[in-house]
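Postdoc handover notes: sequence design on the structure in folder B. Input C-alpha cells:
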C-alpha cells in the first residue's frame, strides 16, 4: 500500500520495503529520502546497506536519463522487515533455560505466545518464571531494533539432601580445657592459667541430639526429578556416669557429679578424685576417673587414671599415666643416672632412662620439663622450656607460644614427632646435641577407610570368582546338554562382569597406593634462633645445623630434610 501521495513513497512487498520516487522530482536528494524513511512506518526495518539512499539517488538519475517506458515513478528495494527471533538455550545440567532474543527490525515483535511455544519446543516445562516472560516482552519493545539480549526464563530446583543427625554439646569437654589458655586483662594470654576445672552436677544436661531431616527432591527445567537423600540417623548412647533425661529422650544428662567428656554421639562423666599431694602417705594412685592434685607429686610416686590428671604443683621424678590429658601447672623435674650420662658421651644416638614420665592418651600441658619422658597422642604445650627431655608426640607441639610469637626453648634431648613444632629457640650456645626424629604424618582416616573398603571389595570379588569356578566345574556333570550350556553361559557372563570390577578396583588401589607415598610437609619452626648441634633425622637421613642462625624453618618435604629462612 502507498505511504502517501507525496513525491517519495514507501511500500511493502512480502518482507521487503521499496522506495518509490516520482519521475518529475528531479531535485530529490539522498538526505530527503532518508528523512522520509525515518518518518515512515518502516523506519525500524533493516537497510540493505549503509549507503542505500545515495545508491537510490544515483540509480534514480540514471533511470531518468534512460527510462523509455511511460512509468511515472522509480522503485527500488531499500530495506528488509525482520521479525523478532527467539532461541532457548538449556544448560548442560538442565537446571537453567535462557531465552536468547533478537529484537524485531520492522517485523513482528515478540509476543507471549511466541515465548511459550519456544519453551515448549525446547522441552522446558518446569521452573518457568512467569513474570520474566512479561519483562522479556516489554524489554523487546524498548530496545534498539535488531539488538540482542538474553534472559534466564526458567530455573530448575536443586535437590537438597537432608541433614544427618548431629549432637550438640551443652557443656564444655573437660578434656579440651587444656587447649584454651585464659586471657589477661591487658589482652595477653597466660599459658599457665587454663581456667577452672569443668565439672557438672547430677542432673545437668550434657548432650542433645538433633534428629536427621528429610531430603527435598529437585527438578530440572525439563521436568526430570532429581532425587535427594534423607539424612542418616545415628543412635545416641549415654556413657558411664550419664543417662537419658526421663522427660526428653533426645537429651543425655549427668548421673553423678564429675568431669564431663564426649565422643561423637555419647557423653560420660568421670568421677573426680582430689588429693592435696601424692607421696608416701597416700601411696600410688590408680583411679577410674580423673585426678586433681592440689600440691605436688613427689619422687617415686605413680598416678594412673582413666580420665585427666591435673597437678597444681610439681612432678618430681614421678610417673603419670592418663587416659585423657595431663596438666602440670608448675613443672616436671627428673634426673639421669651417671651411667646413662657416660653412655651418652660415647653414643649420641643413645636415649637415656629418665626419672620423670608423663604419658597421656590425649594432650600434655606443662610449665617446663627437665630430664623427663613425655608421650602424648595429641598436642604438647610447654610454657617455657624443654631441657634434655625425651618427647614422643603425635600431635602439634607448642613451646612457649605459636608461630612467630613462640619464645620457648628446646635444649638437648630427643624429640620424636610426625606433626608440626613451634618454638622460639632450638639448641644452645654450647652446641648441645638436640635431636628431632621425624616420621611421615599419617594419612587421613578417610583415606585409610577408603583403602580398607577397596581391599574388602577385592576379597569379596575374589571369593565370588572362586564360587563361579566351582560352578563351572560342577555344571559339567549335568546330563542335560541344554541345561549345561545355559548354566555355563550364565556363569561365564557373571565371571566376566566380576573380572571387570576386579580390574577397576585394582586400578583404584594402584592410584591410592601411589598417593600414600606423598605426605604433607612437616614443619619445625624456630621463631628466634637455632644453634649448632640441632640435628634432624628421617629414614637414615640427617641434617645437622653447623652455624648459629636466626629465625629458621626446618622441613620434612617430599621425604627430604630441608632448611629455610623464616620470613
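Designed sequence:
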Amino acid at each position: 500500500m502507498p505511504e502517501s501521495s507525496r513525491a517519495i513513497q514507501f511500500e511493502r512487498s512480502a518482507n521487503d520495503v521499496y522506495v518509490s520516487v516520482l519521475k518529475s522530482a528531479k531535485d530529490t536528494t539522498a538526505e530527503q529520502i532518508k528523512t522520509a524513511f525515518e518518518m515512515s512506518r518502516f523506519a525500524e526495518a533493516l537497510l540493505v546497506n549503509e549507503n542505500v539512499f545515495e545508491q537510490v539517488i544515483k540509480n534514480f538519475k540514471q533511470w531518468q536519463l534512460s527510462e523509455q517506458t511511460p512509468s511515472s515513478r522509480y522503485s527500488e528495494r531499500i530495506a528488509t522487515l525482520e521479525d523478532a527471533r527467539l532461541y532457548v538455550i538449556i544448560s548442560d545440567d538442565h537446571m537453567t533455560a535462557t531465552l536468547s532474543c533478537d529484537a524485531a527490525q520492522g517485523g513482528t515483535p515478540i509476543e507471549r505466545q511466541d515465548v511459550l511455544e519456544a519453551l515448549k519446543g525446547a522441552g522446558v516445562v518446569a521452573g518457568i518464571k512467569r513474570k520474566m516472560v512479561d519483562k522479556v516482552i516489554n524489554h523487546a519493545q524498548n530496545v534498539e531494533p535488531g539488538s540482542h539480549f538474553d534472559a534466564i526464563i526458567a530455573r530448575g530446583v536443586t535437590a537438597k539432601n537432608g541433614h544427618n543427625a548431629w549432637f550438640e554439646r551443652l557443656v564444655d569437654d573437660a578434656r579440651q580445657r587444656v587447649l584454651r589458655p585464659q586471657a589477661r586483662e591487658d589482652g595477653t594470654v597466660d599459658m599457665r592459667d587454663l581456667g577452672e576445672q569443668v565439672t557438672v552436677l547430677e542432673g545437668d544436661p550434657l548432650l542433645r541430639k538433633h534428629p536427621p531431616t528429610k531430603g527435598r527432591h529437585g527438578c530440572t527445567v525439563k521436568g526430570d526429578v532429581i532425587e535427594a537423600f534423607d539424612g542418616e540417623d545415628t543412635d545416641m548412647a549415654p556413657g558411664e556416669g550419664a543417662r537419658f533425661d526421663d522427660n526428653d529422650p533426645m537429651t543425655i544428662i549427668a548421673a553423678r557429679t564429675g568431669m564431663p567428656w564426649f565422643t561423637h554421639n555419647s557423653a560420660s562423666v568421670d568421677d573426680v578424685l582430689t588429693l592435696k599431694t601424692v607421696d608416701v602417705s597416700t601411696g600410688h594412685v590408680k583411679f577410674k576417673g580423673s585426678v586433681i592434685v592440689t600440691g605436688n607429686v613427689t619422687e617415686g610416686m605413680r598416678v594412673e587414671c582413666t580420665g585427666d590428671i591435673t597437678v597444681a604443683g610439681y612432678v618430681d621424678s614421678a610417673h603419670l599415666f592418663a587416659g585423657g590429658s595431663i596438666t602440670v601447672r608448675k613443672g616436671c623435674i627428673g634426673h639421669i643416672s651417671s651411667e646413662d650420662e657416660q653412655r651418652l658421651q660415647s653414643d649420641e644416638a643413645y636415649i637415656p632412662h629418665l626419672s620423670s614420665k608423663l604419658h597421656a592418651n590425649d594432650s600434655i600441658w606443662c610449665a617446663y620439663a627437665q630430664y623427663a619422658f613425655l608421650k602424648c597422642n595429641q598436642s604438647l604445650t610447654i610454657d617455657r622450656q624443654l631441657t634434655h627431655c625425651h618427647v614422643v608426640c603425635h600431635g602439634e607441639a607448642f613451646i612457649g607460644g605459636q608461630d612467630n610469637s613462640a619464645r620457648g626453648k628446646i635444649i638437648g634431648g630427643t624429640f620424636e614427632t610426625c606433626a608440626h613444632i613451634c618454638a622460639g629457640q632450638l639448641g644452645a650456645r654450647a652446641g648441645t646435641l638436640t635431636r628431632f626424629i621425624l616420621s611421615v604424618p599419617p594419612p587421613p582416616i578417610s583415606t585409610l577407610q577408603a583403602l580398607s573398603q577397596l581391599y574388602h571389595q577385592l576379597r569379596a570379588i575374589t571369593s565370588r570368582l572362586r564360587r563361579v569356578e566351582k560352578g563351572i566345574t560342577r555344571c559339567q556333570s549335568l546330563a542335560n546338554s541344554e541345561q549345561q550350556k545355559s548354566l555355563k553361559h550364565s556363569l561365564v557372563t557373571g565371571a566376566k562382569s566380576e573380572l571387570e570390577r576386579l580390574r577397576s578396583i585394582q586400578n583404584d588401589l594402584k592410584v591410592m597406593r601411589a598417593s600414600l607415598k606423598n605426605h604433607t610437609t612437616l614443619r619445625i619452626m624456630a621463631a628466634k634462633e637455632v644453634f649448632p648441634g640441632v640435628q634432624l633425622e628421617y629414614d637414615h637421613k640427617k641434617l645437622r645445623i653447623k652455624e648459629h642462625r636466626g629465625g629458621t624453618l626446618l622441613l620434612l618435604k617430599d621425604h627430604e630434610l630441608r632448611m629455610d629462612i623464616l620470613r
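Context for whoever picks this up: The first strand starts at residue 8 and ends at 13. Don't rerun without checking with the PI first.
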